[in-house]
Specification:
This protein is mostly helical. The chain has 2 domains: about 45 residues, Orthogonal Bundle (Arc Repressor Mutant, subunit A), CATH 1.10.10.60; about 140 residues, Tetracycline Repressor, domain 2, CATH 1.10.357.10. It is built from 9 helices and no strands. Helix 6 packs across helix 8.
Length: about 190
């Protein structure tokens, strides 16, 4: 097995172990057992449990950031907002184990990691806030505090995804995306 494939195998099995046990209860021994490799093999790729956990989270955060597209007012805005919602929902539900880690296990690991997670969500909130401000100027977002709108948006999405992933709610992705869109449209979004 080549190095890239072995690394991916370790990440995959570590993700499953973290999702099942949580960060603190998971052990390197659990990861290497699940992956069917020797403990020394783990250390060829990762310095410790935190390093592999951080890479799993980083990869997901990067993918979420890449899924969001800036709205172009020359095209139907409602369709673009729906598209952003669909992409985020699909991405987070296609890998429920990692989403569970992100929403249920990622905080409280250590102060440095908590700062990293806070910085990521602050960055997302800042981008969302700017988009909402742009939307207000275009008349497609209601007047109000865009910072609060941004955090209300993130909070509602995080809670819904938590329920879907951690509690195992089973709903079709398309229905989830449409309900999120309708929720935002009933709130601050002013599009048909």
């Amino acid at each position: 097995m080549d190095k890239a494939t072995r690394r991916q195998q370790l990440l995959h099995h570590a993700r499953d172990v973290f999702a099942k046990r949580g960060y603190h209860a998971a052990k390197i021994e659990d990861i290497v057992t699940a992956a069917g490799v020797a403990r020394g093999t783990f250390y060829l790729y990762f310095t410790d449990k935190r390093a592999i956990f951080e890479e799993i989270v980083d990869r997901t955060l990067h993918r979420v950031g890449m899924a969001i597209e800036r709205v172009d007012i020359t095209r139907p805005v409602a369709d673009q907002v729906r598209g952003n919602i669909r992409r985020i929902v699909a991405l987070l539900l296609e890998d429920r184990a990692t989403t569970k880690i992100l929403l249920a296990s990622a905080s409280g690991i250590d102060p440095a990691f908590d700062r990293k997670m806070t910085a990521f969500f602050d960055e997302v909130a800042t981008l969302l806030e700017q988009s909402l401000r742009d939307g207000q100027e275009l008349g497609i977002v209601a007047k109000g505090d865009t910072r609060m709108f941004a955090y209300l948006t993130m909070g509602s999405l995080k809670e819904l995804l938590f329920e879907l992933v951690v509690r195992g709610w089973d709903h079709p992705e398309e229905r989830i995306a449409e309900e999120i869109f309708l929720f935002f449209r009933a709130g601050y979004l002013r599009v048909d």
